[in-house]
Amino acid sequence: MKKGLFIVFEGGEGSGKSTMIDMIYNWLLEEGRDCIKTREPGGIEISEKIREVILDTKNTSMDGRTEALLYAAARRQHLVEKVIPALDLGKIVLCDRFLDSSLAYQGYARGLGIDEVYKINKFAIGDYMPNISILFDIEPELGLERINKNSNREVNRLDLEKLDFHYKVREGYEIVYNQNKDRMVKIDASLPIEQVFENVKSVINGLIN
Ligand code: TMP
């Protein structure tokens, strides 16, 4: 069976990872690669519906574990319906967020415990893991400033968290990164966009060539 490449983009709010996915996607197409881009939570109908529930700014009473389970449920459906079939066809799958988001946001920042959140996600994803998880690291204040400048971007329930929460997310990612350097790469997302692009390209070139 052909095997594709599963590449995940991770990071806090305003880290520029979504813009970077578009740039990398276009670059890979120009290179003649068979490639798709997708996102979590979402990417397919059922998971986009779950996304609406999770991120609805009205759902202020949502319990942390409920939130973690919904992310894991959306992840499972997206994985089986979209990611695995594409990988089986030998495609490169670029995915905006995956497991490490849950570890950093729910496991660490929400305080549910990285190991606990890993366990429910293990149930959701089985043995499927990305070939690489690229972490876009940025000072939360800078990231949030970028978001506020971009009036087209949707504001979601997690954006409304206090600055302190976003610092915890960054700390959470740092912990997850330090524990998983074999499958993660950290990129300085505060650099000029062209430089970030070059750095991400060189990571991906290392995988495809
Ligand atoms: P986005 O803004 O990158 O589309 O992500 C939506 C929000 O969901 C963002 O605030 C990060 C959050 N999130 C989690 O808290 N846990 C997860 O597992 C995922 C995938 C996203």
Radius of gyration: 16 Å
Bound molecules: thymidine-5'-phosphate
Q: What class do helices, strands and sheet pairing give?
A: alpha/beta
Distance between the termini: 20 Å
List the quaternary state of the chains. single chain
For the biggest β-sheet, the strand order reads 2-3-1-4-5
Low-confidence parts: none
Structural features, described:
There is one protein chain. Helices cover 56% and strands 13% of the residues. It has 209 residues and is α/β, with parallel strands linked by helices. Helix 3 (64-88) packs antiparallel against helix 4 (99-109) and helix 4 crosses helix 7. The two termini are 20 Å apart. The mean pLDDT is 95. The chain binds thymidine-5'-phosphate. Thymidine-5'-phosphate (TMP) binds at residues 13, 40-41, 71, 96-97, 101-102, 105-106, 156, 158.
